[in-house]
Amino acid sequence: MTTRSNFKHLVYNARKNVEKVSQSADPTLWRERAPSWMRRDYWETLCNIWATERWQQTSTIMKVNRAANPEAYMHTGGSVSFATHQSRLESYS
């Protein structure tokens, strides 16, 4: 796991935890509950981003897309190379 993906998971978990603790899906109510490992001004900025209408719409669209075809998001390539996958897909055409 890279540092970038690790941080992404940390922020995701912090967001889910504060949503659970505050018992609210409204990011404007989360501002006062910054994680101890994050600067408060960074957390407030994230909460402001999460509260925007554009973010909310995008989040809803992505949630629907993921639910529509759950098999598409499984990482099952295994040891098969991308070149092999590509040639197999081309042979189906």
UniProtKB/TrEMBL annotation:
UniProt-listed InterPro entries: Probable_transposase_24
Pfam hit, one: Transposase_24
Protein name: Uncharacterized protein
